[in-house]
Amino acid sequence: MPEWNLIGLCLVFSVWVAPGGNDFGVILEDVQIDGRDVITFTATAGNSVEVQINLPDVEVFADFTQMLATALPGSALPFDFELLGSSMQFMSFELSTDTNFTGDVLDDLALHIDTFNFAPLLQVGGDVTLPAGADLSLGFLKLGVTEAETAQLRLDILPASGMDLGARISFDTTPEIDFFATDASIAVQALIKDLDGSTFTAVTTDVRYSLLEVDFDGALDFSSVSQAFVAGVTLSSVLDSSGPQGRIQEFIKAVDFAFELSDSTLPSALRDTLEETLFTLASLGAAEISQFIEDIGQTIANALLDKAFDVDLPLTDLRLATVLADMASVFSRLIDTFSISSTALGFVNPNAADSTNTQGDVVADTAFSQQVDVQRGAALTLGQLANLATYSSLSLKVLDGSGNTTNVEIDLTGSDAVDGTKTLKERMQSLVDLLDDALSAQGIAVALAGNLGLRVTSTQVPGTGGNPATYNTFAVVGARKVGAGTVDTDFDLENLGFDFGNLTDQAETFGEDTTEKVLRFAIATTDLDIGRLDLSQLAGVKNLRFGISLDGVDEFVDVSSNTGWSSVAEVAADFSAALSAKRVGLGVGLNAAGDGLSFSLAADELRSVVINQDSAQLLRALDIDGLIEWVNTELNEEFPGAKLELTEAGELIFSMPDVTQVVEITAEPASTENASTTNPKTDGLFLNTDGIDLGVLQGLDISGALAAQLNATLSTAVGIDLLGFGSDLTASGGANALAASQSFTGKLGDAVMDNVFFNNLSLVGEIDGTVSAISGSADLGILKVTIGGSDPALNFAHVNAQRLKQKMPIRRSFTQFRTAKQVWPVFRLAIH
User: Fold this and answer.
1) d(CA 476, CA 446)
2) E strand or H helix at 716, and its extent?
3) pLDDT tens digit string along 193-213?
């Protein structure tokens, strides 16, 4: 369809007067552009004509992605949850005339323009068209998206019922035009048909509406039995709040989520257990699983390094701790086995490399933005204005590019900004004037925007000393209450009509342990090359999760491949496709060296985009199915017998049978040169009667060449009681673990570890050695004895020592194991 603009009402007409009569007429002809009716005229009763103006259809998008991300923190949607709507497509009105004649002379002519009818200014919502294979990652669950529907939102134009924009023309000596201008007013009204409604109704203050409903399906193996399930989520919100927090803070207040197993034959107790397990897995994230793996690995490592295990083998310098230290090192690095290094993905600044660090150790700044020197807020709601009137002053801090701050005070007392008798425009203009007067000296200008919100412009400050140019910005750090004089430190820029898209957090800038919101201004940063990507780190990996912040709203973007990646170009292509699916205008390609990634912000991407690398999210699997598969296949190659299982009891159990570490010591001629306890390869076997009681033997000194093998084998099962974890969450409020996790004030990772247990843990440590070519001497007082003087090779001894630990044949909690005193119930030493 060709684009066109309607400048005004184009009437093609001819005038005729009936012979000998008082008739006066105008012939109206339809207007077409490129074969499309633009203006049509339809005769109605009497001297009236209906005029319809057809407008071009402009696509309107409603993005529910951020709503879902805000309502369900930690969720990842691999496509953009947008709905296509339509704008106003037509408007119509009636033209009618009446005339007055004196004889054949026209005295006056009245043209009435009334009976206005407007199509909705815009309308959006309804059923969502889903891409093939749509899915959602929620916590540690991956769910298929089967159906989605949103509330329908509409903006109507409401003309006054008697509005007439016509006029009467008098044809006296001096023609005069008198415009009617009757009830010439137009209002705009927001209407909604929420998911529970059947008709559109006006949006009402403080009423909660059901805005989004999504249905899911999935399946999980419980004790090797697959259980199918369905799930659904409903998001509801207050669209117009009278509270002081405003629209953004009130936007998401209620999330209803439900799981239901498909097998109706399951016993009710088992059904309840499995469904609650699903809720718990949905509330877990990669960060909590990472902490679980890291903590159990470090705890086992610490136990292996306990002094109870640091035992010397008598008559030698061999120590069982030698092999246990190697095993402890394996467990202390357990998390490295499960995760991917962020530096391996190249998220470092290659320009920071030096002769000893070719990769560079400075994390790359992956923040992209077009130049931003203006921020616009929304007009304050009645609730926000009423809240503002309870304060006598505002405390601001201006921040420059060098980190310096300047205090600014705004005195509200007696101003129109806090005068409830003034109009919204008058109050906002007063607030603008107060802010502009106080901030203009700091290079910041404040004006009234067309929507009656604040429009703040910052002037670029040139860089000095090699530093780049910057913008000054500011935060509202407090507001002083009228009368009481107390300072409300929770009052910030959100209370002045700005939302997360306008703001960015500044931690520790305005004081220790403080985080304040400042207006976001930015120098254009559109392109970046990062360091080398190490493909060897991606062996067996099919999913990568990156954090992404869009105008301050944090989401995840999952980069996936069914077969994994064999080249950096494949990673770049899939990364770029994942961003494109979320309608993020950030392209991904190869860096100049061709061995890493490069990012480029599209010219039409006006949002700020930040790619984050959170090490806790860099697990080799991003959902429970993927993690089970990875452990049972990939990890099994490194730890034979390793297994991860989700049980019908609601427990996630990681089994590590017979993890074995071996240290080999080869036989070498006895020598005291370079001998040390840390280098037992050169240590012979030494005996001395000062160390042992052999009666009449004095000055016994025996040495020989030692060959030995030190073995350690550990077996255990470590699990998370998912039901116990969910119960801990719901104890603080919430219908289920997922709902409770949204308001849980503690650390989810700590709550997980409170429900971790060890089961059937056993450890065997053994030293098995042979001493050959033994030689030495002994003094019996009247007789001196030489051992192996003629042929030491004929002399040998076998030594064997075992320390066995069967510490926990029954289940013990993580805390009990971590604090338990180590005890060796069995000790055996043999010399032959």
Assistant:
1) 14
2) strand 698-721
3) 988 888 998 888 778 888 888
